[in-house]
């Protein structure tokens, strides 16, 4: 038996399927998602060579992933067109999220390889994470728990509507 560490536990057994990968069908989820409806797979927008999809396990509400349709693992494998559209979608995602929920800032990034933190290392994806002052409150720091104030389907609807609406 281990020594007590003084931490309270908030049990989240539903996350075990994510941790073990047992909730995922075989194959690449980023290759599979575009084969389904936007609402079913939480796709916010589709382009010619990339699409924007909500992260199923977001750091914050509105956490988008910009994914090429083509199955490539490394940024250097993208074509010039794909690089340009990843950049354009990243910029559009920031504009859209600002319009929809007024974040104070963003984290942008790609984790290249599992050692760098990529959960799905075989298919490149750009993270667009909205940030608000105080979004790293006591829950994740002390309680080691992240609270999410909005359901993913509602977030997808909000961002999809804002994505397609004209700029103010």
Describe this entry's structure for a reader.
With 168 residues, the protein is an alpha+beta fold. It has one domain (25-161): HIT-like (HIT family, subunit A), CATH 3.30.428.10. It is 31% helix and 15% strand. It has six helices and five strands, in the order H-H-H-E-E-E-H-E-E-H-H. The chain has helices at 16-20, 29-32, 38-41, 80-101, 138-141, 152-164; strands spanning 43-46, 50-54, 64-68, 105-109, 126-131. It has a five-stranded antiparallel β-sheet with strand order 1-2-3-5-4. Strand 1 (43-46) and strand 2 form a beta hairpin. Helix 4 (80-101) packs across helix 6 (152-164). It is globular, with a radius of gyration of 17 Å. It starts with 15 loop residues before the first helix and ends with a helix. The model has no long low-confidence stretch (mean pLDDT 85).
């Amino acid at each position: 038996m281990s020594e007590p560490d003084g931490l309270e536990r908030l049990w989240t057994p539903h996350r075990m399927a994510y941790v073990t990968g047992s909730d995922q069908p075989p194959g690449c989820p980023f290759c599979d998602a575009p084969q389904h409806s936007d609402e079913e797979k939480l796709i916010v927008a589709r382009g010619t060579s990339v699409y924007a999809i909500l992260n199923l396990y977001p750091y914050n509400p509105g956490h988008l992933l910009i994914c090429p349709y083509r199955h490539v693992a490394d940024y250097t494998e993208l074509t010039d067109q794909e690089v340009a559209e990843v950049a354009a979608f990243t910029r559009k995602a920031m504009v859209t999220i600002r319009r929809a929920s007024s974040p104070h800032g963003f984290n942008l990034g790609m984790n290249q390889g599992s050692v760098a933190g990529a959960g799905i290392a075989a298919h490149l994806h750009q993270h667009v994470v909205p940030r608000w002052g105080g979004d790293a409150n006591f829950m994740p720091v002390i309680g080691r728990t992240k609270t999410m104030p909005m359901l993913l389907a509602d977030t997808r609807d909000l961002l999809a509507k804002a994505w397609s609406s004209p700029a103010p």
